[in-house]
Amino acid sequence: MPIGSHSNHLRTKQSAPIRILLVDDHVLLREGVRAVLATQEDMVVVGEADDGAAAIDAYARVRPDVVLMDLQMAEIQGLEAISAIRANDPQARIIVLTTYSGDARAIKALRAGAVGYLLKATLRKQLLDAIRSVHLGGKHLDAAVATAIATHVLDEPLSERETEVLTLASRGKSNRQIANALTLSEETVKGHMKSIFAKLEAADRTHAVTIAISRGLIEI
Amino acid sequence: MQSFGEGRERMDESGSGVIGTYRAVRFTARPVDALLTDVELLIVGMPAAPDPADDITARLDTALQRTLVQLREGGLFLGQFGETLVLDRLPPPFLACSLLAIGMGELAKLDPRGMGVLGEMAMRSALKLGSCDVGYMVKLPLSDQSPELIARVAREVMAGMLRAIDDHPAIMRCAILEWVVDDHDVPAGIAREAMRQELADWTN
User: What is the mean pLDDT of the segment spanning A12-37?
Assistant: First the structure.
């Protein structure tokens, strides 16, 4: 039975609001999130940054309680920024707010120290819930993202070289062209492709590329 | 300290599942089904190691395509004592909106006081999230379910929840938070009576 009216909210004790840092290279997105957070008595935006490097600086300066972090940004990307912030402050509470639903990015983000992973299509209440629950010290995931993560969290990951090979394949390169680009023999590239097919359970290279893009294993 | 519902404690409903009301939280004990109970927030316990007797987590995780077990195996949610994970937008067949999994740690080390701490954490989370109705399914799956142990656990859990309510600094979104304690597989009368007693002692 939601009360609905703001004036009916009952406060038993005063507490400091949750201090939030917004990190996203899209001004409109930051403005939208700021507008949502401004409606909450227990939250306040204390800083903004438009790339990973600025996020690291802003975090050190304002020491927010919670960071909302995009992954895809110019200069230093979100994952790198998460690792850097957590290296300086292991208690940092970072929620990834991204358009990418692929499990690979989410797993990387959580392994880097993020405690929440939300899609930008997420609803207002879920965003607010996530901020509140990570502020209490917990983790917060969309159930569908959690299931996607769980399905692949124990998979053997692609090696760095396999990722390079598959990225070039996604750009239409033949095995010979990939071999030339990476200074490998064509036989070695074929060996990498075979290993990639096995790890991704792919029928052919097109299938492998499709899987890798949808799961966020390669960037295009 | 202003509080909605103060003085509305119900102490005379011993024949029903109602435990009582403390401030804006109404406690009831009845069986809760992890899949079929329509609540805003479902709270379950997650031990650090698989427990064959833990049918709640097993049934729930089957519906979640083994998400919790695989997250534990992958090191992303270990079930360590006090660790929490919220899963939002639960898929069908769940009727609940969200799931809060609370790490129980090693079950062999978990005592009534520990259960009280988990109860406190659960209540604090629910209040912080502004949940209006909650199904609470964190249980101590011990083989020795003596009446004394059941009563001690129930009192500690209730005391923990009441502490969290007293400490709650944030905004109540609902006039009443309906808090249902799962009493499936528990000698309901003993646990319910112990919780009523704790509530009575707390308010006196």
Answer: 89
